[in-house]
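Usage

Read records sequentially. Each one opens with the input sequence:
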Amino acid sequence: MKKDNKTELSKLPSVQKVLDTLTDDKFSLKHEIIVSIIRTELESIRLDINKRAVSFKSKEDALSLIQSKVVNKMQQLTSLPLKKVINATGVVLHTGLGRAPYGKEMMNYISELLTGYVNLEFDLESGERGERLNLTDVLLTTITRAESSAVVNNNAAAVLLSLNSIADGKEVIVSRGELIEIGGSFRLPDVMAKSGARMVDVGTTNRTYLKDYQEALNSETAAILIAHTSNYRIEGFTTSPEHPEIVKLAHENDLPVIMDLGSGALFLTKKAKLPYEPEVSDFIQKDFDLVTFSGDKLLGGPQCGIIVGKKKWINLLRKNPLMRAVRCDKTTFAILTWILQHYISNEQIPDIGTYSLLISSLEELRNRAKKIVSSVPQDICDFLGINIRDSKTEAGSGSMPTETIPSIAIVMSPKQISEAKLAKMFRSNNPPIVGYCKNGEFYLDLRAICKDDSNLLTKAITRVGSNTCEKS
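and closes with the structure output:
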């Protein structure tokens, strides 16, 4: 070790010396955890000294740096990582921001329900053990017209469980044009491989014929899988068999047909003047054996995967040991049952958070934008270059691909600060506000902002604008 390194290392404080400076007990951490943090930070500084990446003028400087790092680490540990975020991206079903938002009415019900015990797997009539899947079965079969149902922790698990139950060690036929990739680089072929099924892809990316399915059939075939291309469209020189043709072919060969629907709408979206998305019940009527879809996309509920279809196949899934590995907890069932109740009510459009945001009229959004902007001091509006503009957004999470939804945005075109820096300042707000940058401007789209958060947006714009003015 070189002499100058020894000199720098000698300036480092002892663990006790750092402890003595931490007189504020606001973090309420265990003593051994604080000691561990100090030792970790000291070791990190030692490594930096040996790399000549840091030096100190005095022992006091070294102590100050260590104390700062330790306090930051303690603050990080005691701050809850999940925060309320205002979604100003315009994307209602934003995966990164938690997809479907929940309303206050539902949260009040959930809060009261889950502060004690619930009959998750207990039959109150017989006093014996019950089945949690029965909590949602009547609702799901009534809404979709299916014979039976199951609920797991997400749609990928629904596909995995379906394939493993039906085709473990056997072949499943799927069109090459439907080998989808969902967010986070999760690919359908990979899910199929983990299920134990052997994928047989037929046709080409843009053209698949019924004969392609016919020619792939053999004694090892266990099922045909159709994947709804919910996050993209193949257009132009394309062809594919009609679903009834595929179902007929499969059933003539005593094979089930599985539909991976992805998003999954439980009512006709055109009623809400939204782009068309296939209804789950349509595929049940087309005689599909199993249909899988997500609970936290267009359905507007919690993250879960829902499987509806024929009792014969659902019973097979329910008995699979994997079912326990992918089952949902009481919170998921509580939220899902509350949401599903709205699909059987006499409401034309389900009165849930997702649809209240999706169907907000342009007039309503424009009026809200005007009210927000009018509440911001004029000098700040001028400094930030604020204007109200028509915008285009999307549902998100692969729902209604290639379709846009008209919206209204508050757009900022400041001359003294970059749009990227402005975006970061809004993300640093409390609560954080996530907008987007486009063509050198910063957008706060109102489509996915709850009405109750308008005042928070006004305060944030005023605060950010005021701070920026002072620094420029």
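Summary fields computed downstream for this record:
- The mean pLDDT is 89.
- The two ends are 47 Å apart (CA to CA).
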